[in-house]
Amino acid sequence: MDGIILPGGESTVIEKLLKSSGLAEPLEKAIKDGLPVLGTCAGLIVLANIFNVLDVQVLRNAYGPQIDSFETEVELTEQNETCRAFFIRAPKISSVGKRARVLATLDDEIVGVSQDNIIGITFHPEVAKSTQIHEIFVELISKRLI
């Protein structure tokens, strides 16, 4: 396996499934050992709050309930372009530590970060059929394979 995506959903359910299946420890170890990972929405929460492998603080459901979900453009800071994104009961990145760097912003808020072999975003690019984040992830995998 060259990389893994931890998708959105419900982070508590994902955590329970990881533990009950016996995958939590080996997956956490693989990520710590350099396995490239993209965490979107709940996947970001797993990376930051459950595995503690991403140097950020994340608040769950920070944009409100399902009815407050929205679609917008986010700024991809390093690419100097925008990306269509859906925020569905999305978490917020409340702070970024020294090891992580900003990957995406929405107005003055950080909505995506990267750190070594990890990308974490608060939104769903796949719902908007945007491939930009996935292209960044594939590039990360490619660099690690060379």
Structure overview:
It is a single chain. The protein is of the alpha+beta class and 146 residues long. It has a single domain (4-145), classed as 3-Layer(aba) Sandwich (Rossmann fold). Helix content is 29%, strand content 32%. It contains 4 helices and 9 strands. It has helices at residues 11-20, 24-32, 42-50, 132-145; strands at 4-6, 37-40, 56-59, 70-76, 81-87, 92-96, 101-106, 109-115, 118-121. The strands form 2 sheets. Strands 1-2-9-8-7-4-5 form a 7-stranded mixed sheet, with helices on both faces. The radius of gyration is 14 Å and the shape is globular.
What fold name stands as the CATH topology? Rossmann fold
Radius of gyration, Cα only, in angstroms? 14 Å
Q: In total, how many beta strands?
A: 9
Distance between the termini: 15 Å
On the 0 to 100 scale, the average pLDDT is 95
Major sheet strand order: 1-2-9-8-7-4-5
> How many domains, as an integer?
1
Please give the share of residues in helix: 25-40%
CATH class term: Alpha Beta
Figure out the total of helices.
Answer: 4
Q: Name the structural class.
A: alpha+beta
Task: Give structural attributes.
146 residues; alpha+beta; Rossmann fold; 9 strands; two-stranded antiparallel sheet
Concise structural overview:
This protein is of the alpha+beta class. Helices cover 29% and strands 32% of the residues.
Topology at a glance:
Blueprint lengths: L3 E3 L4 H10 L3 H9 L4 E4 L1 H9 L5 E4 L10 E7 L4 E7 L4 E5 L4 E6 L2 E7 L2 E4 L10 H14 L1
Parallel strand pairs: 1-2, 2-9
Antiparallel strand pairs: 3-6, 4-5, 4-7, 7-8, 8-9
